[in-house]
Write a structure and sequence with these properties.
162 residues, alpha/beta, Rossmann fold, 6-stranded mixed beta sheet, globular
């Protein structure tokens, strides 16, 4: 991997909560802060494409994500994304050729002390360097084929579909 191209779209991982009524905004991408704090030993670049909860992503947003990937000469991508529609965005990417794309997010904002963000990002960084070409999801300590996973909202985790 020459360089890791990181695309951010918003989602819970970057949420900032302001009051007890769950009023929030999507803040600056947290992944840069996390990678700097972990002193990673590879070159990376962040491009903040969107700042949306994934429930609000639409076909135009998914097209923008596809355009950013296919316009790049890079071969390794990490996408931070809201967990509610991560699987749908993975499907929208279609055939990615020789690119390795790993999507990840968080079930709790990265700013929360008990967030799964750092763990998920770490899993995604390891995965993007080892997986064959294709699109993958790194959540809950597992690497998932996006066609075989779903988010279980009741249990607040990803699990095998079907």
């Amino acid at each position: 991997m020459k360089k890791l191209n990181i695309l951010t779209t918003g989602g819970t991982i970057d949420k900032i909560y302001y009051d007890d009524k769950s009023d929030y905004q999507i803040g600056e991408p947290e992944i840069g802060r996390i990678l700097r704090a972990m002193n990673v030993a590879f070159e990376w670049e962040i491009r903040a494409l969107l700042r949306k909860d994934s429930l609000h992503l639409n076909d135009s947003d998914r097209s923008l994500i596809c355009q950013a990937i296919f316009a790049s000469d890079d071969s390794h991508f990490l996408i931070t994304h809201g967990t509610d529609t991560m699987v749908e965005t993975a499907a929208a990417l279609g055939d990615v050729g020789e690119r390795v794309i790993v999507m990840t997010g968080a079930l709790n904002p990265a700013r929360f002390i008990d967030s799964d963000a750092v763990f998920n990002i770490g899993c995604a960084v390891g995965a993007v360097q080892c997986l064959p070409p294709g699109t993958w999801i790194a959540m809950n300590g597992r690497i998932w084929d996006p066609t075989k996973v779903r988010k279980n909202r009741a249990e607040n985790r990803f699990e095998a579909a079907g």
